[in-house]
UniProtKB/TrEMBL annotation:
This is EF-hand domain-containing protein. SMART domains: EFh. It comes from Nocardiopsis changdeensis. Residues 2-37, 38-71 form the EF-hand domain. Pfam families: EF-hand_7. The keyword Plastid does not apply. Keywords: Calcium, Repeat. SUPFAM superfamilies: EF-hand.
C-alpha cells in the first residue's frame, strides 16, 4: 500500500466538497478551472480507472495507489 500522505494535498485540491472522495464532477470542475476541456465521459473513465471498490468515487487510498503506480 503506498503512503497516502504524499498525495493528500493534491487529493484535497480535487475533493472540492471535502467528503473524502473524488467524483467525476469534481474532476471535471478541476480540469476546467485549469483550462482543460474535460468532458463528463472522460472524467467518468478516469474515475473508473482509479476506482478499485466500484463505488464510482476515488478515495485517497485509491488515488495514492494509482499515482504511485505511474512513477
Amino acid at each position: 500500500m503506498p503512503e497516502t500522505s504524499e498525495y493528500a494535498a493534491t487529493f484535497a485540491l480535487v475533493d472540492a466538497d471535502g467528503d473524502g472522495r473524488i467524483t467525476a464532477s469534481e474532476l471535471v470542475a478541476l480540469m476546467r478551472n485549469l483550462g482543460d476541456e474535460c468532458t463528463d465521459e472522460q472524467a467518468a473513465e478516469t474515475v473508473s480507472a482509479m476506482d478499485s471498490d466500484g463505488d464510482s468515487r476515488i478515495s485517497l487510498e485509491e488515488f495514492a495507489r494509482f499515482m504511485s503506480s505511474r512513477g
